[in-house]
Amino acid sequence: MKIENWNLKIKQQPLLCVVGPTGTGKTALALELAKKQPSILISADSRQVYRGMDVVTGKDHPHTTHIYGVDIVDPDEPCSVATWYDAVMPHITAAWDDGVLPIVVGGTGLYVKALTSGIGTLHIPPNNHLRSELVGYSVSELQDKLYRVDPQKLTSMNESDRANPRRLVRAIEIAIAPKKLESRISLLESKVIGLRYYDDSNYRSAIEVRVRARLAAGAVEEAKRLLSQYGENMTSLSAIGYRSLMTYIKGEMSETEMVDRWVADELAYAKRQIVWFKKQSVEWQFVDKPGTI
After folding, report:
1. pLDDT in tens, 12-40
2. How far apart are the first and last CA of the chain?
3. I want to staple 69 with a disulfide (CB 3.0 to 4.6 A). Which of 43, 53, 116, 195 is the partner?
């Protein structure tokens, strides 16, 4: 990638973020940007926070490069945006103290938002009693309960979130919390670069190449190891890629069906990422359009 002519002004920015949908070369760009001045790299990928979940999540950066924000918890441990935030902020503040630029790279929009604009509900802790109470609720029952405590929140949720029991429970949890704690830091100055394709048809081909590369690198073997070690009833193993692999390993899906489902899930996720980041202040660059990168 040729970035010599970019007007990044990164010396004046406390934080540089490289964001966008999956399969657009964010890590490669971040590594190149890191060569331009003393920097540290921070991963903003909610799938790479788990130890031992490496191949499927794409932890394929050079072994000589350290990236903070990965391998924070074991697969059977919970990990929220607050968990990630608390893990990476000491490294970011230490970088500032040393005059080093933190470069955040990844496609988990909520993680980036926590740093660039703050999330008022970031450190509201899990309400385990409430979660136990809501375990048997259907999606429609959870929607009804959320509507009673925070109708505006339910109305503002997209279709996917309204059908997601975990996100509905968290929304209820936040709505009834006695106090909405403020994020510990809100960056007033940050630069966010977004990578995407100009031709949307390129997402499928790029994602399929990535999926097949991860299968060749041992994705099935990794999923079998995790299934044997932890079982299948974990939130971490419901991540894209793993859920298709688990179904395949159990003999409920052919290899071709597994690949097609994995690619389709990644493509749907990429579309959701674009929708999210279009609502943020992002300087977009097209990776498939001559003259932009």
Report:
1. 447 899 999 999 999 999 999 999 889 99
2. 6
3. 43
In sequence order, the 6+-apart residues with CB closer than 8 A to the CB of 277 are 19, 20, 21, 109, 194
| Listed range (37-46, 172-181, 184-193, 205-214) with the worst mean pLDDT | 184-193
Query: Alpha-carbon distance 102 to 38, whole Å?
Result: 9
Token readout for 81 is 């945006």
pTM of the model: 0.77
Q: Is the pLDDT of residue 83 over 80?
A: yes
User: Would you place residue 11 in the very low, low, confident or very high pLDDT band (cuts 50, 70, 90)?
Assistant: very low
The edge-to-edge listing of strands for the beta sheet with 67-68 is 67-68, 39-43, 101-105, 16-19, 191-196, 283-286
- Helix H segments across 98-199? 109-116, 128-134, 139-149, 151-156, 159-162, 165-176
Interatomic CA distance for residues 188 and 293, integer angstroms: 27
Q: Which residue in the block uniquely carries the two structure tokens 């670069």? A: 193
Nearest Cα to Cα of residue 34 among 66, 58, 60: 66
